[in-house]
């Protein structure tokens, strides 16, 4: 540690703290305040819980909440696909480096680009249905985006398509630092592929899998705006409206900043729970390291 | 240069078996199918961009032949594309420079100085990494209207720098901590000030971390949609990501022109990936693997 006069460290922190104050601290304090007021312009009369009551009674909010919760179902799918693919690559199959680059490629594309390209592939007369017709699977050619029955599923497919590349890279990076002797020993003892996966690789990867699951969970709750906005705009109807889009629509399109703020506070509460889980997992991982 | 850097692998002792076993074939089939799925939308985007409308309507999934370049000139006509591009470059450069400066100073204090509240600051900083931007959206917008910062580069640069600073401090502080103490102490006995230690010793030694950070943050800002949509609504200030959503609605029926636009918008990121792949992967997996 450097020896400094007591105020010096704070001087180094000051610019960063100023930015954090402007972008995080002040707005979060303000959004809590906004959620209890009838906002006109930059403030308004105190109305207590009214905004929360309005939000909790709003069927669109219920739909948004439900859809965000359903999006969380992609988390186990992401973990499973990333695990399977990274383990296959870890076996150093021919061309694994090429595969690794290919699987990561979707993650390079900007989400708006992905959303727009997907909107053309999945449209009723789009490339996907064209291909399905060609190979004789007409029955699977549904209206992927235009029907409220399938739109959310399509959104989930597109999100998994782009996000899974990150999981594969993270899992593979962790696998490559793993002690191979245990696996070799198990192989010599006659453990099959499945047994090695189940009893050696998965326990070894557990920390990384948990971390990725939490990160993916936060992504689903809080970072899917660009997908929804470019692929479905929340529709048809409210079939793909999520919490983020609800806050955006209420706050900026419907001019209901009080309700939007109440929804934002609810979202913040959910993410706080997830962050707490993340911290808890990290603390536990550290304890295990020490033990 | 674009070679993938494999994290130090233990050399494989087992000789490569040449016999093809059913397991190996199955693995290749699974990986090839996954690889095709990962690539298909990108191939669709690229190949559609080189078709004229008639070719596209005739066959959506075929490769384009003969190649048609008219979509690119149509997409670039009028110059708005270059304008959006310029706006994105200004915002990305401005916010990455600001964020890196502030984060380096703060990370230096966190990693190398003793002060009250240091651990609390660092924990809070980690927590901020996952706060969804949409939570701050409404109060920030109200504040920026009051301050006259809506529709300005400066205002949006402040928001982007603020949103990217928690991750930046986290990454740099972890890197700064790992720098050997002897290097710093020898500089101090030569009479260097704290700031000179940072600028002349720590930053040069941290070049890989800085490059990683710049790549990751630049990618994030470049791809961001929500903030850009709300804070830069004027046509002449739109970013490329907002621009392409406008572009899509303008050329909605002309899919090849839209795809040419999407391809053009993706080129900077694809180049960045090809030339900086290892920084990329290292940055994106930072924290994940250790966690």
SSE series of chain B: HHHHHHHHHHHHH
Alpha carbon gyration radius of chain A: 23 Å
Spatial gap, N to C terminus of chain A: 27 Å
The profile of the biggest β sheet of chain A is:
none
CATH architecture of the largest domain in chain B: Orthogonal Bundle
By DSSP (H or I, 4+ residues per run), the number of helices of chain A equals: 13
Number of folding domains of chain B? 2
Q: What is the helix tally of chain B?
A: 13
Instruction: Tell me the distance between the termini of chain B.
Output: 29 Å
Q: Find the structural class of chain A using helix and strand composition.
A: mainly alpha
Q: Quick check: average pLDDT of chain A?
A: 88
Shape of chain B: globular
CATH homologous superfamily descriptor of the largest domain in chain B:
MetI-like
Percent range of helical residues of chain B: over 70%
- How many distinct folded domains of chain A? 1
Which pair of chains forms the biggest interface, and how many residues does each contribute? A-B, 108 and 100 residues
Quaternary structure annotation: heterodimer
CATH architecture of chain A: Orthogonal Bundle
Please describe what this structure looks like.
The complex is a heterodimer of chains A (291) and B (291). By secondary structure, chain A is an all-alpha fold. Chain A has one domain (62-290): MetI-like fold, CATH 1.10.3720.10. Chain A is built from 13 helices and no strands. Chain A has helices at residues 8-34, 50-57, 59-71, 74-90, 96-108, 111-121, 127-134, 151-176, 180-188, 193-222, 225-231, 243-253, 257-290. In chain A, helix 6 packs parallel to helix 11 and helix 9 (180-188) runs antiparallel to helix 10 (193-222). Chain A is flat. Chain B is mainly α and 291 residues long. Chain B has two domains: 24-68, no CATH class; 79-285, Orthogonal Bundle (MetI-like fold), CATH 1.10.3720. Chain B is 73% helix and 0% strand. Chain B is built from 13 helices and no strands. Chain B has helices at 22-49, 53-58, 70-76, 80-112, 118-128, 133-147, 153-177, 181-189, 194-205, 207-223, 226-231, 240-250, 255-285. Chain B is globular.
């Amino acid at each position: 540690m450097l020896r400094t006069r007591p105020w010096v460290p704070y001087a180094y922190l000051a610019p960063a703290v100023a930015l954090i104050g402007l972008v995080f601290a002040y707005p979060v304090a303000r959004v809590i305040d906004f959620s209890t007021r009838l906002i006109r312009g930059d403030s308004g009369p105190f109305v207590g819980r009214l905004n929360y009551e309005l939000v909790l009674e709003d069927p669109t909010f219920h739909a948004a909440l439900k859809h965000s919760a359903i999006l969380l179902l992609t988390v186990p799918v992401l973990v499973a696909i990333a695990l399977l693919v990274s383990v296959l690559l870890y076996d150093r199959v021919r061309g694994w480096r090429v595969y690794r680059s290919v699987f990561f490629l979707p993650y390079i594309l900007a989400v708006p680009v992905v959303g727009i390209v997907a909107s053309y592939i999945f449209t009723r007369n789009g490339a996907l249905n064209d291909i399905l017709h060609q190979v004789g699977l007409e029955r699977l050619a549904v209206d992927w985006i235009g029907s409220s029955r399938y739109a959310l599923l399509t959104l989930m497919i597109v999100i998994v398509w782009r996000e899974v590349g990150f999981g594969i890279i993270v899992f593979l990076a962790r696998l490559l630092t793993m002690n191979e002797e245990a696996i070799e020993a198990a192989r010599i003892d006659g453990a099959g592929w499945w047994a090695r996966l189940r009893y050696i690789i998965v326990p070894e990867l557990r920390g990384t899998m948990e971390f990725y699951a939490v990160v993916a969970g936060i992504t689903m709750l809080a970072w899917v705006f660009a997908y929804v906005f470019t692929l479905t705009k929340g529709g048809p109807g409210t079939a793909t409206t999520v919490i983020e889009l609800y806050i955006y629509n209420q706050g900026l399109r419907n001019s209901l900043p009080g309700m939007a703020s109440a929804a934002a506070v609810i979202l913040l509460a959910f993410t706080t729970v997830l962050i707490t889980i993340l911290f808890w997992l990290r603390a536990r991982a550290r304890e295990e390291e020490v033990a | 240069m674009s070679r993938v850097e494999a994290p130090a692998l233990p050399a494989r002792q087992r000789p490569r078996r040449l016999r093809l076993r059913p397991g190996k074939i199955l693995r290749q089939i699974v990986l090839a199918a996954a690889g095709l799925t990962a690539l298909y939308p990108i191939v669709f985007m690229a190949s559609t961009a080189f078709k004229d409308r008639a070719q596209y309507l005739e066959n959506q999934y075929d490769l384009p032949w003969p190649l048609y370049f008219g979509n690119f000139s149509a997409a670039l006509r009028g110059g708005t594309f270059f304008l959006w591009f310029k706006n994105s470059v200004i915002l990305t450069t401005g916010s990455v420079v600001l964020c890196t400066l502030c984060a380096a100073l703060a990370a230096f204090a966190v990693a190398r100085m003793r002060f009250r509240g240091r651990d609390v600051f660092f924990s809070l900083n980690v927590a901020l990494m996952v706060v969804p931007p949409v939570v701050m959206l409404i109060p920030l917008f109200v504040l920026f209207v009051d301050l006259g910062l809506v529709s300005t580069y400066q205002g949006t640069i402040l928001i982007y720098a603020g949103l990217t600073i928690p991750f930046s401090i986290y990454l740099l502080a972890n890197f700064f901590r790992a720098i050997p103490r002897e290097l710093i102490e020898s500089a101090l006995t030569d009479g260097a000030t704290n700031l000179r230690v940072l600028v002349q010793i720590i930053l040069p030694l941290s070049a890989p971390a800085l490059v990683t950070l710049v790549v990751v943050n630049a990618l994030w800002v470049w791809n961001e949609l929500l903030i850009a949509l709300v804070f830069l609504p004027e046509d002449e200030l739109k970013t490329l990501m907002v621009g392409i959503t406008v572009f899509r609605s303008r050329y909605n029926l002309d899919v090849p022109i839209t795809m040419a636009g999407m391809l053009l918008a993706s080129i900077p990121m694809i180049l960045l990936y090809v030339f900086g792949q290892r920084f990329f992967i290292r940055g994106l997996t930072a924290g994940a693997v250790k966690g």
